[in-house]
Amino acid sequence: MTVISTKQNAEELSFTIVAEFDAKVERVWKIWEDPRQLERWWGPPTWPATFELLEFTPGGRANYYMTGPDGEKARGWWHLTSIDAPRTLAFDDGFADDNWEPVESLGTTHAVVTLDDIEGRTRMTITSKFESADQMQKMIEMGMEEGMTLAMGQIDDILR
């Protein structure tokens, strides 16, 4: 199984998901920096992602949408805050309206991704921090944990 653990921490307002892959860190890094690979797994299988923009550099922006089973679209944005290839990546993440403007009512999440070598394999840890307990609860109720677990379950096929 790709995902080995998930953890919600109400005191730290964080959600952490950890997965391991049978691939080197450099190979796993490519699933983040290549938009065509990224959209093959960012989002659950029933909500595939399309990245219209990915400026993979500190200060860069990403605009993407996920398409639901009935054709509905959920838009999102990232603001990449730091990149230390091929080990760490950090970005602010939020929902967007049809003009790619942030949906303020859903807040912003700050995500930190780390890739660690484990004897030639890779452990990927994504920690998302929320603005408030209400925002964290809302994201969890919207299916963040299940969605991220399903999304990361698609990575093994990309790495083959």
Automatic annotation (TrEMBL):
Name of protein: SRPBCC domain-containing protein
Species of origin: Rhodococcus sovatensis
Domain Activator of Hsp90 ATPase homologue 1/2-like C-terminal: 22-159
CDD domains reported for this sequence: SRPBCC_CalC_Aha1-like (cd07814)
SUPFAM superfamilies (UniProt xref): Bet v1-like
Classification of source organism: Bacteria, Bacillati, Actinomycetota, Actinomycetes, Mycobacteriales
Highest taxon of the lineage: Bacteria
UniProt-listed Gene3D superfamilies: 3.30.530.20
Coiled-coil boundaries: none
Protein family according to the UniProt entry: Belongs to the AHA1 family.
InterPro entries per record: ASHA1/2-like_C (IPR013538), START-like_dom_sf (IPR023393)
